[in-house]
Amino acid sequence: MATGTNPRDLAVPDGEFPFTWSDFRQIAALVHSEAGIVLAETKANLVYSRLAKRLRAIGLRTFREYCALIQGVEGTDERQAMIAAMTTNVTRFYREAHHFEYLKTHVLPELLEGARKGGKVRIWSAGCSSGEEPYSIALTILGIEPDAADYDIRILATDIDPEMLRRGRTGVYPAKQVGDVPAELRRRWLKASGSDIEVGPELEELVRFRELNLLREWPMRGRFDIIFCRNVMIYFDDDTQNATWDRFAEILQRGGLLCIGHSERITLTSHPFDLVGQTIYRRRSAP
Questions:
Q1: Which of 10, 34, 64, 163 has its CA 20 to 30 A from that of 131?
Q2: Beta bridge partners of 157
Q3: What distance, in Å, lies between the first and last C-alpha atoms of the chain?
Q4: Which residues pair with 208 in a beta bridge?
Q5: What percent of the chain shows pLDDT beyond 70?
Q6: Going along the chain, which residue ranges are E strands?
Q7: Which CATH architecture has domain 98-283?
Q8: CATH among 3.60.20.20, 1.10.10.60, 1.10.155.10, 3.30.559.10 for 7-86
């Protein structure tokens, strides 16, 4: 315990590093302002366990020192590392498979026919983590149109965590991660790489990875036909969720699709979406 620290002020009494409620509140406020993530006081132990690793890595002795670092001009990189530590990257290929089935049967055939006639298809995987989601979308497309890379079809994959994006660009995954990929698609578009699986060049051609914080400016100027944003809003408070739903509506084509996580709902009292499937919303064609 730090000299002069009242035990009642400690958020985690028996921790390796002194961690006070003041430290917790400073970290929670910064995480919320930077990334929209809400950290209730019940998350104190989680915050401590994840950030204690950061203190060890950079050689700090107390969370007071850590708070001074992340709030200073020299703390830009560490703020990014802190945000990454506060998110849980649980993903796999074809997670929530009903979304991909809906694309396959109700949405992609028309979009791909338009692409064959010279149109473009734009899909956004917002909060893509390490890439399994956008590659699953790409696999679904290739299952319908094997020559998709010859057309103007692009999947934008964004995340706030540069390490997750690096993994996505690498495109190499443990074999257990691809168990839900349909066998024919797995055989044709994925390849063995030792004990891992590597995505093929046709998948890489369709997906573009970019770093993006959903709370900041979105540099994209065109509209999207489909947006996936799954299990991201669970980190946000109601106001941030509602503002983000509105922003998605603005950047979706009329009639475009929004797929969200299994525990998420659009709760705005007035919004331009119709529920068309399990956690699948369609942007209304009329205002």
A1: 34
A2: 125, 209
A3: 60
A4: 156
A5: 97
A6: 120-126, 152-159, 172-174, 190-193, 196-199, 207-211, 224-229, 252-260, 273-277, 280-283
A7: 3-Layer(aba) Sandwich (3.40)
A8: 1.10.155.10
How many residues are listed for the chain in this entry?
A: 287
Place of tokens 């000299």: 3
The tokens describing 170, both together, are: 């690498």
The string of DSSP codes covering 202-245 is HHHHHEEEEE--TTS-----S-EEEEEE-S-GGGB-HHHHHHHH
**DSSP reduced 3-state for 122:** strand
Strand partners, 123: 155, 226
122-141 mean pLDDT: 97
The mean predicted confidence, pLDDT, of the chain is 92
Examine the pLDDT at 269 and tell me if it is beyond 80: no
Pick the closest to residue 282 from 248, 257, 251, 265 (CA basis): 257
Catalytically active residues, by annotation: 50, 159
pLDDT in tens, 206-229: 999 999 999 999 999 999 999 999
Structure tokens at 120: 């473009």
| pLDDT tens sequence across 88-122 | 777 899 999 999 999 999 999 999 999 999 999 99
Task: Give, in order, the Cα–Cα distances in Å from 94 to each of 79, 268, 272.
Answer: 31, 28, 27
Quote the tokens at residue 19.
Answer: 């961690």
Nearest to 162 by CA among 213, 94, 216: 213
**Cα(104)–Cα(218) distance, integer angstroms:** 28
What b/e string do you get for 170-196 counting C-beta neighbours within 10 Å, with b at 16 or more?
Answer: ebebeeebbeebeeebbeebbeeeeee
